[in-house]
Amino acid sequence: xxxxxxxxxxxxxxxxxxxxxxxxxxxxxxxxxxxxxxxxxxxxxxxxxxxxxxxxxxxxxxxxxxxxxxxxxxxxxxxxxxxxxxxxxxxxxxxxxxxxxxxxxxxxxxxxxxxxxxxxxxxxxxxxxxxxxxxxxxxxxxxxxxxxxxxxxxxxxxxxxxxxxxxxxxxxxxxxxxxxxxxxxxxxxxxxxxxxxxxxxxxxxxxxxxxxxxxxxxxxxxxxxxxxxxxxxxxxxxxxxxxxxxxxxxxxxxxxxxxxxxxxxxxxxxxxx
Length: 273
Fold this sequence. Notes:
Blueprint: E1 5-10, H1 15-25, E2 33-37, H2 43-60, E3 65-69, H3 73-82, E4 86-89, H4 90-102, H5 120-134, E5 149-153, H6 159-170, E6 174-178, H7 181-186, E7 200-204, H8 207-217, H9 226-243, E8 247-249, H10 255-266
Parallel strand pairs: 1-2, 1-3, 3-4, 5-6, 5-7, 7-8
């Protein structure tokens, strides 16, 4: 059972509130029930959420934790005045001190993605997502010269989610290419990748974990057998080592950690926001 309920309330998507709130909550041994309430941009909507929070407090017998990212003071006041939860104003914590330090007033813009259609960075992300989808799982070798990175590794080692995360969060054009038994028999990278070897980055994974993942997709197959997984992982790591391709194991790393490592190695400029 959840320890308690945590609300993430925002006048935008709620992504900022939830990301920052979860980073804080991860410091504690909790299994909270998450409730996201985005686009709370009026007093009336705020009152409805406060009613929901107060009902949770009565039902559970403990205060819900409420992370809010709200710009309009009138909307924020609804939570600060009549809410039975523990309200943590993420914007207020930082904006007021920064206004004093910078000696300027923030623009108090509602929502994180205002004027997104005119944003160059947003256009880059859309283009990168289309690129990742078109070059997923070795579907196409066209335009690989446009790739920022080419992820290589055995099937189901985490290449697809990592390439999509890089595209969506950082506008990185990431292709991914599976290394298959035929490549190991030849003892070299696929020919289509050879001209782009400096852009390649490898992902590997523990054989037993790979076997578990593959069994979910193709149970009781040779593809998923532990013996085959051990062979493919060892052969892939040997190939990447021989070809001088940097690689890391995705076994105990989150997609965020993998992506950050890749960015650090191939596009350190993208670590500067």
